[in-house]
Amino acid sequence: MLKIVGYTDRPSVRPGESLAFKVSCEAGATEFEAEIQRLICGDDSPHGPGFKAEPVAASVNGRYPGRKQRINAGSFGIIDAGVEMAAGARFAVTVFVQPTWLAKRAEQAVMACRTPTQGRPGWTLLLDETGRPRFELTDGERHVAVTLDRALPERRWSQLLLVADPSVQQRITLVHRLVSPLPGEDVELKVIADLTFPPPPFHGIPVTIAAELAAIDGPRLLTTRHFDGRIEAPVILPPGELEVGHWDFSIGIDTQTITDISRHGRHGRLVNLPTRAVTGANWKGQTLRWSERPDLYGAIHFHSDDLHDMQWETDFSWTIPPNLPSGVYAARVSCAGGGEDYLPFFVLPAKTAKKAPVAFLASTFTFLAYANSHHGYEDSLSEVCYGALLELGPTEQFLKERRDFGISLYDRHRDGSGGVYSSWHRPILNTRPKRALWNFNADLHVVDWLTETDQAFDVITDDRIHEEGLALLSDYRCIVTGSHPEYHSTAMLDAFDAYLQAGGRLMYLGGNGFYWRVATHADLPGVIEVRRGEAGTRCFELPAGERFHSFSGEWGGLWRSNGRAPQALVGVGFVAEGFDENSHFVRTEGSFEPRAKFIFEGIGPEERIGDFGVLGGAAGYELDAADPELGTPPHALVLARSVEHSNVYLLTPEEMLAGFPGTDAIENPRVRAELVYFETAKGGGVFSTGSITWAASLSHDGYQNNVARITGNVLRRFIDPKPL
Amino acid sequence: MYEIDPTRLDLAEEFRRKPYGRHSAELQRVLNRMRTEPFDGHYVLLRDGRFGPYRLGRFGATPADPITPTGHVFQSLREAEWIVFKMRWKRLTGQDLALD
User: Fold this and answer.
1) Given this model, what pLDDT does residue A168 score?
2) Which label site among A36, A293, A346, A589 has the fewest CB atoms less than 10 Å from its CB?
3) Complex ipTM
């Protein structure tokens, strides 16, 4: 049980900008302490360099009242203005529905119009615990309900029709119609019940879609009876008259708005990022691109574990002082009983400040992609892939119990569908120091090495490169990545391309980099979208027709599948992975070329490079290699190649057109990492290590080792303005 | 389906000596069989401290179901790997692994 957790309102700031900190004391502590710290190294493992952080004399350091903050996970739509209907008015509802998680055996509201007050007068069209359609109506005192005795089929489209008619026949009619009935199925079933009291008036009562409104808590709407599945074309109308509301989800697919096409214009909004740009009831493969035929994409997929913004109250805000050095920072928050959390954030230098020669790139998009990941223990194949027993530490055990902290882009929602959106606006418990050496905490090994070697550096982030492009990169002679810069937007790749063509230098100190395409949305800061397609190492494949990003309209998946393979940018690209034991590099002919002499100063010709380190070896986890067919420049030098990987290091799917025996490192020579160097236009250059665990070897033997020496040799030359 | 030969104690000894990293092809087949057990009942380690100890547990029918501790507690990952290997050997071959 984690006793205290929190988050900042955004990942990156500059001096003069304000940052909000939001903390929840999960175990009930009534106060907590906060201290701003500069993070140097998060690796507190027994054989690592040790946890290193420097306290910052910040004005916000101190004690604060604590409490457990509420979370309302689960996506839904809401028409805040509600609808207007007189007391006793007859009305009807139609909607297309595709449930995707009936096994949860819970009531699921498809549409509702309920007042969040005593008695909650209003109506709800829902599925009961067994998936049968049900309609409930109450005036706050009297209740009537009708249930149709046939469950909706899972993952198939149905239409529901409800008519409440007090004026003539005084009855409720509920109809279930199958859009594509199977042989032997009745297309339509109907149930009729008495309407024993007139419907109450509806004056501005919010209409909700995929959930029922239970309460309003400040800016937060608290909802219940969440629906998992797809909903399309909800309509409310008095029978035979003009519509009260008709929400067409095929409009504004790239927004969080739902559009009412009735004459009333009662537009609504989406909460907690349900998935848009998904196929609707009339999609039959006519197009794969939602922007070509939005009318076929009139559905929205709602999940009870969707989450955008926890909307926690701010405990304190801090305006970044003008003299605060650029770096990786965190607010350390602690409470009674040993509770501790670090709320990380990244401080860039002021735009007008004198810049360091080097910028360390914090992979904020990658951190988001893996945020609060469950996939490592929810996939039954994880153990055989990792080559080791699965292990759940306190964080993983906490997240396993707390689905309301949201999922990562590696996880499936509880209904089995893949996650496509991830948000910063929640505690991201695997982007922390003192946690697994993966992504953020592993990347701090680079920060540690830069610090211990007295190399002046600034910190920049994915999100800021995406926003500012080449203007941000061009401030630096050399950009140094972390261990796993995997996720990038089109704007980011454009910026890197331009930077390298203008003489910039890039040190890619990782593996599996520049791999997946990311989309962002101007109205949703701190959120990314990833649409995984038919290639790549992935935990799920999105359904056909749903591989274009809703945010940008761009085709998703691998950059390789988009014609911009990482080999073309950094000389190497992902080829293999394994996680049981790491290995080392041996020099290849390219390392003895005169052009590479500066890289191997002080390195013997037969030295094993990186047969040491916190993770056992500098070649490991995820491996990249050169491939001229995918764009490795012809003049690129392969300097070293990793060897002796284990049986569980396997070729990636995109490296195979068909499965065949012999894809592991024992038998297949293509399972290897390669160290690559090449010059770019105007004296620029790229150095790539092609291995995630490279950075974990930097600190070995007091930072005096051949991995640190090679990295230092390259860095010194790369910050020398003399053309390469 | 590959069946583990209970007479191949040499493979068990190889695993005990080196649970991680390069293995013989035959041992890898044994491990593949053991490690691809269904999710329901799959072994998992629960670590409550920063670096151990480790409690052994088994997953429920789905990821949403609770993990049931078996009562085993290990001080190291290597110890856990060996004990779970022996338990799986027994289950898959019907015979105790008599190496200790």
Assistant:
1) 65
2) A589
3) 0.98
